[in-house]
Specification:
The structure is a single chain. With 301 residues, the protein is of the alpha/beta class. The chain has a domain of 209 residues: Rossmann fold (3-Layer(aba) Sandwich). It is 32% helix and 21% strand. It is built from 10 helices and 14 strands. Strands 5, 6, 7, 8, 9, 10, 13 and 14 form an 8-stranded mixed β-sheet that branches. Helix 5 crosses helix 6 and helix 8 packs across helix 9. The longest helix has 21 residues. It is globular. It holds the Pfam family Methyltr_RsmF_N. GO terms for molecular function: RNA binding; RNA methyltransferase activity; S-adenosylmethionine-dependent methyltransferase activity. Belongs to the class I-like SAM-binding methyltransferase superfamily. RsmB/NOP family. InterPro entries: Methyltr_RsmF_N, MeTrfase_RsmB-F_NOP2_cat, MeTrfase_RsmB-F_NOP2_dom, Nop2p, RCMT, SAM-dependent_MTases_sf.
């Protein structure tokens, strides 16, 4: 990792536990993870097929998620099984917001920033029956979303192209997933060349947009309904700061939840700002389970 990135991540030395291990993890390549699409194939059948091809896979707890230890191809998407939609390449940390949302049969769910579809497709697999509105503003990313839905055999998703900050979806939902566009610090291992160091001004601009999106989400969720707010970044302005706005300004309530993925609680103070309810939030760091990074909060209207 170059000196600029080292200096950049040092700003979090006081809020990330085991910071030396965290920094060491950023210098290591991120392994591939995959999720079995049980809408199309039994988990045991797929694993047998891939292992017969030379894949070495490690199942993660009771999830249909696997760490790819070794593989006979350069990329895990280069198999007929992937083309047939039998599995989806998705980091374990990316699965956490969907587990927090806990989709149920028959629900109406909005995925506000859905493309290219890793979380949307996982929602559909878990809920089986119900309706998902998958929204994104980027047309090219929406094409990827549509392709993934078709490949995985998912038919209960309606795609919309709206601005998540102001789009009117016409109905209210039982649950909303707002996996907000962010500075992407948690993806630095996956894409070290594409990661761009940003300053305080851009973090604050992103946080402002995230708050506007959260406000729009609160308009579209039923009373008593749930919003999961998540990002793949570490910056508290984009995480705890946005949730604080949701609680204090939008009258949303933090909800305690658990996930089967190692995590730490939310940050309680950073940059002169204090944040309550840290025990309600989850922060996933790369050095805990060899994944990307993720922040998750559950809010009730």
């Amino acid at each position: 990792m170059d000196e600029q990135k080292i200096e950049y991540f040092m700003q979090y030395s006081e809020i990330i536990p085991n910071f030396d291990a965290f920094m060491e993890s950023l210098d290591k390549p991120q392994p591939y993870w995959m999720r079995v699409n049980t809408l199309k194939i039994r988990e045991e059948e797929l694993i047998e097929r891939l292992e017969n091809k030379g894949f070495k896979l490690e199942k993660y707890k009771n999830l249909n998620a696997y760490r790819i230890i070794d593989m006979p191809v350069k990329h895990p998407g280069a198999t007929i099984e992937h083309s047939l939609g039998y599995y989806y390449i998705q980091d374990l940390s990316s699965m956490a917001p969907v587990l927090a949302l806990n989709p149920q049969r028959g629900e109406k769910i909005l995925d506000m920033a859905a493309a290219p579809g890793s979380k949307t497709t996982m929602l559909a697999e878990l809920m089986r029956e119900g309706t998902i509105v998958a929204n994104d503003i980027n047309f090219n990313r929406l094409k990827s979303l549509g392709g993934n839905l078709e490949r995985l055999g998912i038919t209960n998703v309606l795609i919309t192209k709206k601005d998540a900050k102001k789009g009117n979806f016409g109905i209210k939902f039982n649950k909303i997933l707002l996996d907000a566009p962010c500075s992407g610090e948690g993806t630095v291992r996956k894409n070290p060349w594409g990661f761009r160091v940003v300053g305080d001004r851009e973090h604050k601009m992103l946080a402002r947009n995230q708050k506007i999106m959260l406000k729009n989400a609160s308009r579209h969720v039923n009373n008593g309904g749930i919003i999961v707010y998540s990002t793949c970044t570490f910056n508290p302005w984009e995480n705890e700061g946005v949730v604080k706005y949701g609680i204090e300004t939008l009258s949303l309530e933090p909800v305690y939840f658990d996930i089967p993925i190692p995590h730490f609680k939310g940050v309680e103070e950073w940059g002169g700002e204090k944040y309550e309810y840290g025990e309600y939030y989850k922060r996933i760091y790369p050095h805990l389970e060899d994944t990307g990074g993720m922040f998750i909060a559950v809010l009730k209207k």
